[in-house]
Amino acid sequence: GSSGGGGAALAVEVGGGEGSPAARRESGHGGTLFSQMLTGLRGADMAKMRRRDRGFRVKFVGEAGDDYGGLYREAFTNLCAELQADSSELLQRCPNGQHSLGSNRSSFLARPSASSPRALDGWRMLGLLLGCALLQRDTVLDLEVCEHVWKVLVGSPLDEADLAGFDDAAANSLRSLRHIDREGVDAALFGDLFFNCFEVELSDGSLVELCDGGAALPVTFHNRHAYCGLALAARLAEGRAGYAAMRSGVASIVPCGRLLALLTGKELERLACGVADIDLAALRRHTRYGVGVSPSQSHVKHFWSALEAFSPEQRRAFLKFIWGRNRLPLTEAEWGDATMRVHALETLTPDQHLPVAHTCFFSIEWPKYTSLHIAKAKLSYAITHCAGIDADNTSEARANALADAFAHLEGDGGAASSDAPRGAASSRLARTSSSETDASNV
Fold first, then answer.
1. Considering 94, 132, 228, 360, which one is annotated as catalytic?
2. How far is residue 85's CA from residue 92's CA, in Å, rounded to a whole number?
3. Which of 324, 331, 321, 392 is nearest to 357 (CA)?
4. How does DSSP classify residue 179?
5. Are strands 199-201 and 207-209 parallel, antiparallel or unpaired?
6. In terms of C-beta density within 10 A (0-12 exposed, 13-18 middle, 19 or more buried), how is residue 432 classed?
7. Looking at beta carbons, which pairs linking 216-225 to residues 24 or more positions away fall under 8 Å?
8. How far is 240 from 411, CA to CA, in rounded Å?
9. Tell me: the pLDDT tens digits for 62-97?
10. d(Cα 172, Cα 393) in Å, to the nearest integer?
């Protein structure tokens, strides 16, 4: 739909879709979608981005996509995936995940080294996107970061339990050292068992001194409490420069100080990211059916049964396929008028077709599959392989498809018209085999 009042939405070029050469092209900040977004928004008027719908429009150059909301959501989802990749400059998997210990093994935290001017620009950009997620009902961040990161952002104090939340081994080691006397170790034995100095290993394996000359200052039975306190403080301070820059990015969109002070870390995470798994009961409540389609029909039952059989990751991939985001709204108020629409894809050979998803309109054309096995296989293939939004037929989409993926778009594309025909915006296209029909996500 249209961008609403307040003038035209800011247009941003993102140089290619997921996995395409344009998405990987070299640029001044690494060539990723995140770096291209950073370049596109640098120097932008933040007042134009303080919107309830979309702060800017996305154009995937070289792909036939027209942003009626689907490309915008797709960009946010893919940016978050980049940030949580092994090659990310800002985030890394937490030590618990690296060593398969403790809790939160799939969570991420700041790279301790991510504090250069270039990295701080990236953190401010991430904060800006977080501000958009807080302000805009349809925008979520698919970020799985450790709980203490959210606590830092809202200004809550951290303690040893937070260290255990991302590095359980380090927390246990400090706890054991602090209470080593309970194991019968005294000053005479301590020097024979421990050879540490006043330095600590951070999440990325780097060593930092805890005081001047700490690398040459041994830990003793008598100064071990001082060492444990300094080591805990150093570990909990990892990434603080980045998190501070991230808060400044949030503040460019929303009143950061007043808003974040009212929230706990868990509340901020839920507002920004929603709930990771897809609540199928909630999705059913917000589903409407097209003409001639009923939830009692066998192929529609196959649709829901396939989703129920999917893993949480597959259900999230399905939501991305059909809506360009992979988390549902948290509350009824956030759902608003949004509903998933299920239409029939009429064909004489349904088992040879893949489903067609209209991303901007949160709808799917579902073939009348003859069995659950076929329905599950087709949907699984679609959500896995139909990753590009590339089957739109608007004039802008055709222009994007023909554009040089290395060229900059000129000017502000303005807001897309809400009068565009259904199925005209945000499509994915995938060809399966010579025996199957093209399937698109529109």
1. 360
2. 8
3. 321
4. T
5. antiparallel
6. middle
7. 219/177, 219/194, 220/187, 220/190, 220/191, 221/180, 221/181, 221/185, 221/186, 221/187, 221/190, 221/191, 222/187, 224/177, 224/178, 224/180, 224/190, 225/178
8. 37
9. 666 677 777 888 888 889 989 999 999 999 999 999
10. 59
Task: Give φ, ψ of 379 to 5 degrees.
Answer: -70, -40
Angle of the 117-135 helix axis to the 70-83 helix axis, nearest 10: 140
Helix or strand (DSSP H, E) at 313? helix 312-323
Amino acid identity, residue 299?
Answer: H
Question: Cα separation of 134 and 219, whole Å?
Answer: 46
The dihedral built from the CA positions of residue 376, 377, 378 and 384, taken in this order, carries a sign that is positive
Nearest-5° Cα angle at 22, 126 to 56 = 40
Q: Is 430 helix (H, G, I), strand (E, B) or coil?
A: strand
Instruction: Look at the chain and count its residues.
Output: 442
| Chain centroid to CA 34 | 11
> Please, which residues bridge with residue 363 across strands?
341, 358
CB 328 within 8 A of CB 282: yes
Structure tokens at 407: 């060229």
Residue 353 per-residue DSSP state:
-
Q: How far apart, in whole angstroms, are the C-alpha atoms of residue 166 and residue 101?
A: 9
CB atoms within 10 A of CB 412: 15
Smallest CA-to-CA distance from 239 within 311, 367, 153 is with: 153
Are 390 and 64 in contact, with CB atoms under 8 Å apart?
A: yes
Contact 269, 148 (CB under 8 A): no
What is the per-residue pLDDT across 107-154, written as a single tens digit (0 to 9) for each? 999 999 999 999 999 999 999 999 999 988 778 898 999 999 999 999
Residue 364 phi/psi, 5-degree rounding, is: -140, 140
Looking only at the bridges linking them, the beta strands covering 439-441 and 340-345 are unpaired
Strand 199-201 relative to strand 91-93, pairing: unpaired
360 is catalytic: yes
